[in-house]
Amino acid sequence: MNRITITSNGKTVSVEGTGKICIRDGTVIVDGKRIDIGDGHDITIQGNCGSIQCDGNVTVEGSVTGNIDCGGSCRCGDVSGDIDAGGSVQGSSYGGNIDAGGSVHITRGN
User: Fold this and answer.
1) How far is CA 63 from the centre of its chain?
2) Which residues is 99 bridged to in the sheet?
3) Residue 17: helix, strand or coil by DSSP?
4) Which residues on neighbouring strands pair with residue 65, listed in sequence order?
5) Are 74 and 90 contacting, i.e. CB atoms less than 8 angstroms apart?
6) Which residue, 59, 58, 61, 2, is CA-closest to 30?
7) I want to staple 40 with a disulfide (CB 3.0 to 4.6 A). Which of 9, 68, 77, 86 is the partner?
8) How many CB atoms lie within 10 A of CB 50?
9) How many angstroms separate the CA atoms of 66 and 86, rounded?
10) What is the Cα–Cα distance from 43 to 57, expressed in whole angstroms?
11) pLDDT tens string 42-98
12) Secondary structure percentages of the chain, helix, strand, coil, to 5
């Protein structure tokens, strides 16, 4: 299990799970369990997670072993899968394809 901390509009929730995260219409679901965090479109996730789906902007302070699908901009560490963002994408490295509505800035380590 992995500890994941999600912050939205100043409210913070910590949960344990494998890290499949879905945030749609103000509802946060982690590993199939609904988490009450209120509505917000700027989400920060601390910890490694499996995959992310969200309506707005997302910042991941950790790695993502799956895909990211977000309606806004995405800031993240390492992503093993694809990234699909409505806005810009910033990250360390990626393993799949990137589809962004804005700019893409990836810094690959050696």
Assistant:
1) 9
2) 84
3) strand
4) none
5) yes
6) 2
7) 9
8) 19
9) 18
10) 6
11) 788 888 888 999 888 889 988 999 999 999 999 998 999 999 999 999 999 889 999
12) 0, 55, 45
